[in-house]
Amino acid sequence: MSARSNILGRLRASLADTRPRPDDFDETLVTGPWQYPPQERIKRLRSLMEAVQTELHLVTSESWPAKVEALLEARGLANLLYAPGTDHGRQLAAHWQAGGAKPELLAYDRPVEAWKEDLFWKVEASLTGTVGGIAATGSLVLWPDRHEPRLMSLLPPLHIALLKASEVEDNLYTIMQRQGWSAAMPTNLLLVSGPSKTADIEQVLAYGAHGPKELVVLILEDA
Amino acid sequence: MSQRIPVRELADSFRGRASEALADDQLRTNFRVAMDSLMKKRADAFPDEDEREGLREQGNHIKARALSRLPDLLEQLEEKLTDNGVKVHWAETTEEANRIVHAIIEARQGSQVVKGKSMVSEEMEMNDYLAERGIECLESDMGEYIVQLDGEKPSHIIMPAIHKNRRQVSKLFHDKLGVDETDDVNELIQVGRRTLRTKFMEADVGVSGVNFAIAETGTLLLVENEGNGRMSTTAPPMHIAVTGIEKVVENLRDVVPLLSLLTRSALGQPITTYVNMISGPRKADELDGPEEVHLVLLDNGRTGAFADAQMRQTLNCIRCGACMNHCPVYTRVGGHTYGEVYPGPIGKIVTPHMVGLEKVPDHPSASSLCGACGEVCPVKIPIPELLQRLRQENVKSPAEQPKVKGGGAKYSRRERAIWRFWVALNTSPVFYRLFLWGATRFGRLAPKKAGPWTDNHAAPVPARKSLHDLARTHLEKGEGQP
């Protein structure tokens, strides 16, 4: 007998003559207290994320690449990891080509194995998109794919994320239903709610544990 | 680190360790400060009592529903994960789980493992098992890393190094890593970050636990703040997740309330920094993520707990740690006193099914039954009720056939005889009067030593007149009449 059949057999024997409990899931418990008028959503997301040391800026779908440039310059960073196969990646590259000396643009265009050491130690910042935000908890939803791989939002000390104002939803339940997650989960789906942190020593909050030390969210007001 | 990690020597009984812990002022201060703060954070995270109670009720229903269909959901989970490209393994014992993990690593000729936090891997003592076979297994959660570096075990399920203060950590880093001592927590964390980043890059295997396994979609959901869980599950070419069979839930939507209950109960956070949902290995056209993902489903006594409808409720647990944060006993004696992987109230009710009640006979009674644990439990496990049940199982005679593994360890014929006498005395009026008559007249002949009680107290001496006598005299005199 295999472990599998032994385990399942014991469980089934214990459930003999019982019926499954009914599904009485009440969505109002997880949506009711977490609803906001549209103009409040950004405000709430902002205050929750700022409370965990996230920097947020309101920008437009035209102006954001210049803001990225300014953020890197203010920190004196040497390079930026980006996803060349995405719309925002192309927009960023176009801005970068137009005149002036800028930090080096690094395209995530080959498998991690081909440049692991550089990814871990040399990359100073990254830019990724998001597929939405959650007002209730102050979270970003990231949907990594072949164009924008998972490690982009994890390895660089500075992570800059683009968030469309129209894609900020009230709560996790709403965004999950609206975007139909359960029908098509990606390899990796992430909720990110601030820079990496820990309170493992004396419960003192310290940022930059293993992931990004800084998280900057650029909210595209007109998108 | 190829030899077995030495674990600090502690007394070999709960009572002995408790006495040591109670005499350690530093330890008691560390725990008191931490638990007070965690209790406040939880209270602040649930400002609305109705909302909190509604959510706890729902959390309980979701887990009860999942357990009522557990074998079906496990099969569904396996099927979905397999479709997604994840290999699923089943293990009845920790030994079997270790063998599976080792074989998977061997097949890839792996030699370096980084681990995200996983209590199930602690159950398995996976670090030791792999180290004995020449595989380095490094903890990457800051707290776990600290306790591993010091050859200790975690003392809290979500705050493994809660028993240490910054000076103790600083000294440890200085001694083991050769860095300068510092009182700055940020600097200490940066030391950990630098050291572990190299390991994340070099590791061939990442091991993690699972917070929720979702049957509907074949998804493993992990919560964390540090990013070490994401590192362990993303950077190495292979990811092995280990989890107990009770972690499965039916639908993706079911995790919405459970997630909220978990992070608010554990740390008072509306959500953790990262919620990491993994539904498969790297696809052919993707550029990172593990090429192989495995899930090991561990029983280790869980089917035993499941067999008993009352004890089955222990499998509701979502491992938030709120019960220990609120436990007056845990706060005073600390996590190591329990001597097992899971300390505190939850440890007392899950450990017997894993190791047998005879190995932890003092645990069920190391409780004042104050009820705080049951009151804060996000999935409404009636912990005090289950502790009382374990106390009964603990003293059952072999003829009474204890139902919990290792039950009856505290059965004593002498104690049973004393209780029989007590019952007879209190249920027979003749016998009772006779006893009273004797006790009031010859009470001063009672022994001056009455076990441990008289170590710190005067021995009780029965009064010359019983309450019955006094009441009778009182009524005969007609006093107290309106």
Automatic annotation (TrEMBL), chain A:
Pfam families: LUD_dom. Residues 43-220 form the LUD domain. It comes from the Bacteria. This is L-lactate dehydrogenase complex protein LldG. It comes from Marinobacter segnicrescens.
TrEMBL record, chain B:
InterPro entries: 4Fe4S_Fe-S-bd, 4Fe4S_Fe_S_CS, FTHF_cligase-like_sf, Helical_ferredxn, LUD_dom, LutB/LldF, LutB_C, NagB/RpiA_transferase-like. One of its GO terms (molecular function) is metal ion binding. Keywords: 4Fe-4S, Electron transport, Iron, Iron-sulfur, Metal-binding, Repeat, Transport. GO terms for biological process: lactate metabolic process. Residues 307-337 form the 4Fe-4S ferredoxin-type domain. Pfam families: Fer4_8, LUD_dom, LutB_C. Signal peptide: none annotated. NCBIfam families: LutB/LldF family L-lactate oxidation iron-sulfur protein (TIGR00273). This is L-lactate dehydrogenase complex protein LldF. It comes from Marinobacter segnicrescens. The lineage of its organism: Bacteria, Pseudomonadati, Pseudomonadota, Gammaproteobacteria, Pseudomonadales.
